[in-house]
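Comment thread on ticket #2218

A.B. wrote:
> Attaching the input chain for the structure job we discussed in standup.
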Amino acid sequence: MLEKLGRFNKWHPRWFILKDGVMFRFKTEHGQREQMGKVPLFGAQLSEYMPHKYDRCFQISSPARPKELHVLRAPTVEDMHVWLNAILKHKIVIEESINSIIITRSDPM
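C.D. wrote:
> Ran it. Output below, let me know if you need it in another format.
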């Protein structure tokens, strides 16, 4: 995917891995040691990004990091939908897991 970065908002190729409710960002495809950042998906919001100007783009914002907005562009519309579905699945799993812990702890015994 491409990520919109920098002072001039240029598109840069990035690779992402979804794991345990977090989206990890890498500079290269095999850059396991070159992790550039991560986006916690708990409470994250996903939305289209300027659909009138860019196609295949979406953005992710996280309440854990309110100043960070990740704008991503997939190679195809199908790839965008695959990524959005995968991100939403991870988001739902992590939110349900955390909510069940909170509910369990608040239940009187």
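A.B. wrote:
> Thanks. Noting for the ticket: The CA atoms of residues 61 and 68 lie 7 Å apart.
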